[in-house]
Amino acid sequence: MSNQEVLGTRTGKLVNVFSRGRIKIPALHFLVSNKKAKWALLILVPILLLTVLAPVLPMQKPLETNVTSSLLSPSLEHPFGTDKLGRDILSRTLSGIQISMMVGFSVAAIALVFGIVLGTISGFYGKTVDRVIMGVVDIFLAFPSLLLAIGLVSIMGAGFVPVIIAISLADVPRFIRLQRSLVLSLRTRTYIDAARTVQASQLWLMRKHIIPNTIAALLVAASISAANAILVEASLSFLGLGIMPPEPSLGNIIKEGQSYLQTAWWISTLPGVVILMIAISLHFMSDGIREALDPRSRK
Amino acid sequence: MTDMVVKQESSKPNPEPILQVRDLHTHFIADKVTVKAVNGVSFDLQRGERLAIVGESGSGKSAMAMSLIQLIAYPGKIVSGSVRLEGTELIGMRENELNKIRGSAVGTIFQDPMSSLDPVMRISDQMITPIRKHLNLGHKEARLLAIDWLSRVGIPEAHTRIDSYPFEMSGGMRQRIMIAMALSCNPRLILADEPTTALDVTIQAQIVELLKNLTETTGAAMMFITHDLGLVARFAQKVAVMYAGRIVEYGTVEELFAHPKHPYTQSLLMTIPKVSGEKSGRLLHIEGFPHDMRNTIVGCSFKERCTAAFSRCYEEAPQLMEREGSQRSACFLPNGLNFGVEAEQEELVKLHVSTLPALAQFTRPTGNVLEIKELHKHFKKESMLPWRPTSQIKAVNGINITLEFGETIGIVGESGCGKSTTARMLLGLDAPTSGSIDIQGNIQIVFQDPYSSFNPKMKIKDIIAEPLVVRKIGTPESRKSKVNELIGKVGLEASYLERYPSELSGGQRQRIGVARALALNPSVVVADEPTSALDVSVRAQIINLLCDLKEEMGLSFVFISHDLSTVRYISDKIAVMYLGEIVEYGSAEEIFNHPAHPYTKALLAAVPVPDPVIEAGRNIEILAGELPSPANPPLGCAFHSRCPLVTEHCVSCKPLLVDYQDMRQVACHAVS
Question: B75: cis peptide before it, omega within 30°?
Answer without folding.
Answer: yes
